[in-house]
C-alpha cells in the first residue's frame, strides 16, 4: 500500500491531516509528488514507518537546502523524475509541470504507474500499460485529497482530507 500526496505548498495542517489519514489506512510507503513547500512538511513525512520519498515541484525553491534537510531525516529526494521499485511494480514519480518528463515515461511504456501532481485535481487514467495517478492537492483545491494505492490488487482510493 502506498500513500500518495501532492501540492502541500507548506500548508502544515492539511499535510499533517493527509499524512495521518494515509498512515491510518496502513500506507507502507509515502510518496509526495512535489510542491512540498518547506521543511515542516518533511518533518511530517519523516521516519521509517512508513518510509517516504518526494520529487521537486515548480514551487519548491532553495532545493539544495531542502534536499539536505530531507536526507538528514531519512526522506529520499527523487529529483524531478524518479523511479521506485515497490511491491514488484515500477513506479515513476514527477510533479507533472514538465510535459517532456511525463511524455518520456509514457513513451517508454516501462512503468506500471506514473504518479504526478501539479494540477491540484485528482485523476486516474491509463496510457498504454501505464496507469497515471494524480492524488489531487492539499492546498488550493475545492476538496483536499490524497490517494492510497494497493499495488497487489491495483486498487486505488481517493481519500478526502478533513
Describe this structure in words.
This protein is of the alpha/beta class. The protein has one domain: 4-Layer Sandwich (Purple Acid Phosphatase, chain A, domain 2). Helices cover 25% and strands 31% of the residues. It is globular. The two termini are 21 Å apart. The model has no long low-confidence stretch (mean pLDDT 97).
Concise summary:
With 162 residues, the chain is of the alpha/beta class.
| Structural domain count | 1
Helix-strand sequence: EHEHEHEEEHEEEEE
- Large-scale geometry: globular
Query: Could you name the CATH class?
Result: Alpha Beta
Low-confidence runs (pLDDT<50, min 5 residues)?
none
CATH architecture: 4-Layer Sandwich
Number of strands: 11
Portion in helices: 10-25%
**What is the topology, as strand order, of the major beta sheet?**
4-3-2-1-10-11
Distance between the termini: 21 Å
The number of helices is 4
- The secondary-structure class comes to alpha/beta
Mean pLDDT: 97
Task: Give the helices and strands, then pairings.
Blueprint: E1 2-5, H1 12-24, E2 29-32, H2 39-45, E3 52-54, H3 63-72, E4 76-77, E5 81-86, E6 89-94, H4 99-108, E7 113-115, E8 123-127, E9 130-134, E10 145-150, E11 155-160
Helix pairs in contact: 1-2
Question: Which features would summarize this protein structure in a list?
Answer:
single chain; alpha/beta; Purple Acid Phosphatase, chain A, domain 2; six-stranded mixed β-sheet
Amino acid at each position: 500500500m502506498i500513500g500518495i500526496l501532492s501540492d502541500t505548498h507548506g500548508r502544515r495542517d492539511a499535510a499533517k491531516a493527509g499524512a495521518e489519514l494515509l498512515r491510518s489506512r496502513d500506507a507502507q510507503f509515502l510518496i509526495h509528488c512535489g510542491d512540498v513547500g518547506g521543511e515542516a512538511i518533511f518533518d511530517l513525512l519523516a521516519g521509517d514507518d512508513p518510509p517516504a520519498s518526494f520529487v521537486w515541484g515548480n514551487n519548491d525553491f532553495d532545493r539544495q537546502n531542502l534536499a539536505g534537510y530531507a536526507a538528514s531525516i531519512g526522506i529520499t529526494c527523487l529529483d524531478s523524475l524518479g523511479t521506485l521499485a515497490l511491491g514488484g511494480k515500477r513506479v515513476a514519480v514527477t510533479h507533472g509541470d514538465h510535459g517532456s518528463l511525463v511524455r518520456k515515461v509514457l513513451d517508454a511504456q516501462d512503468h506500471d504507474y506514473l504518479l504526478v501532481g501539479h494540477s491540484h485535481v485528482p485523476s486516474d487514467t491509463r496510457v498504454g500499460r501505464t496507469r497515471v495517478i494524480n492524488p489531487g492537492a492539499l492546498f488550493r483545491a475545492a476538496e483536499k485529497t490524497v490517494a492510497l494505492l494497493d499495488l497487489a490488487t491495483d486498487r486505488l482510493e481517493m481519500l478526502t482530507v478533513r
